[in-house]
Amino acid sequence: MKPLQTLFILVVSLGLFGCSEKPLETPLSPEEQKAQQYIEESEAAVAVAEQEIEAYAQNWVGTRNTVTVPGGSVDALAEAIAEAGAGGTVVLASGEHTETGPVIINQRVKIIGEDSTDLLFPNAPSPMGIPLEIAPSIHIKDADRVWLEGFSVSTGMEEAGRIAVLVENSPNTRIEGMNISGFQHGILIDGGDRSQIIDNTLTGIVGEDPAAAYNWGISNGTGRRVLMTGNEVANYEINFFFSDRNGLVFSNTMEGGQVGILWCTLPPWQTYPDGEILKAAEPANNWRAYNNTAIGATISYLIIDGAKNSLSIQNESIDAGLYDIEMAGASDRFGFPTPPSSKSFVISVGDYIGYKVKDCTGDNLIIGGSLVDTAEAPCF
Predict the structure, then answer these.
(1) In what order do the strands lie in the sheet with 132-133?
(2) Distance of CA 350 to the CA centre of its chain
(3) Which residues, other chains included, contact 93 with Cβ-Cβ below 8 Å and sequence gap of 6+?
(4) Which of 101, 155, 294, 306, CA to CA, is 20 to 30 A from 353?
């Protein structure tokens, strides 16, 4: 055989052998590409959020004035905050601290608890129905950069309280590593742009108090670019409730209740003592939920009441009673008419491909999941 013929045969043989070793990858379909795009965008959003969380701690600008409140204190927190001054730090020493009335925080301050620190509000206002008068135990009001970290909040009694923490007109609030239990509402935000709610444990009172007909774990009425991550929320009718725009909720776990995460419009059911109504700035708009886990809710993820541009991306749903994800149309389910949601984005692929997804508006992008037949299960 001639040398050139031998070389040609060798090259062809190697080429065929190489093809058998490295088969061409099947290209992604347009739908798969779109799903991958939303997942990658969510990962990028998480990366930015994690940088912001780290930067908050690194850029904390405080005085060196630190006040330590010894365990067993009674009504000592307000004085300690005043003594620490703007930018100061208050350390709650291990043990119980009792406050017989509400604590108002109206300046930049960090309040941190040592191990096994419990802040008790035995006289906290009781839960009530609609309309609800706003009466928080901790009231963060008209302050920028308040940081609460690492202590428990409860009534210390069998009786439940009304609102554990209210953030009012206080941007850049950070609530971290708290354990809140026994309140009708856990954390309520009314004016908290760029707040961070991270690594908290909240336990509600579903079924424990007839007066608490509605109760929410972490809720955002007004506040843009709010971050919620690493929280464990259980036993509220609605575990996460948000309005306003551009928030990010990721890597949280919620258990029980009617709804795990609710994109909605905070109803005007709550009033301040002066009669001013707490209401949403606007329906939920461009809130992104990614990589969360809802366990045992009636509906794990519900988009309703005018919410728009909502993103539910690769969220886990375990033992949902009715649906895993629902995008509601016009509805009367809450006892009053609500407008339809619109233009939602749902990605439920891979391990979540079989989740029950109910689309009641028809203007949504849905990739994955198993669509509910609304002829057999009408929208309501």
Answers:
(1) 132-133, 270-271, 277-278
(2) 24
(3) 68, 69, 70, 71, 114, 117
(4) 306
The answer to whether the bond into 273 is cis (omega within 30° of 0) is no
> What would the two tokens of residue 221 be?
């009425």
Q: Which of 285, 282, 233 is nearest to 261 (CA)?
A: 233
Q: Collect all residues with Cβ–Cβ distance below 8 Å to 226 and sequence separation of at least 6.
A: 189, 192, 193, 194, 195, 196, 197, 220, 242, 244, 247, 248
The three state secondary structure string of 238-258 is: EEEEECCECCEEECCEEECCC
pTM of the model: 0.92
Q: Which amino acid is at 372?
A: V
10 against 32, higher pLDDT? 32
Q: What angle do CA 260, 121, 279 make, to 5 degrees?
A: 45
**Biggest CA-to-CA distance, the chain:** 102
Strand partners, 245: 285
Tens-digit pLDDT profile for residues 205-249: 988 888 887 899 999 999 999 999 999 999 999 999 999 999 999
Domains and CATH numbers, the chain: 29-371 (2.160.20.10)
Q: Which residues pair with 301 in a beta bridge?
A: 261, 325
pLDDT digits (tens, 9 = 90+) for 133-178: 999 999 999 999 999 999 999 999 999 999 999 999 999 999 999 9
Tokens standing for residue 276: 């001013």
User: Does the structure show a pLDDT above 80 at 92?
Assistant: yes
User: Mean pLDDT across the stretch 50-76?
Assistant: 92
Residues in Cβ contact with 126 at an 8 Å cutoff, skipping those fewer than 6 apart: 159, 160, 161, 162, 209, 211
Query: Is pLDDT above 50 for 6?
Result: no
Which residues, at least 6 apart from 221, have a Cβ–Cβ distance to it below 8 Å? 188, 189, 190, 243, 244, 266, 278, 279, 280, 281
Burial of 1 (0-12, 13-18, 19+ CB in 10 A): exposed
Looking at residue 207, what is its pLDDT? 84
**Neighbouring residues of 210: CB distance < 8 A, sequence distance ≥ 6:** none
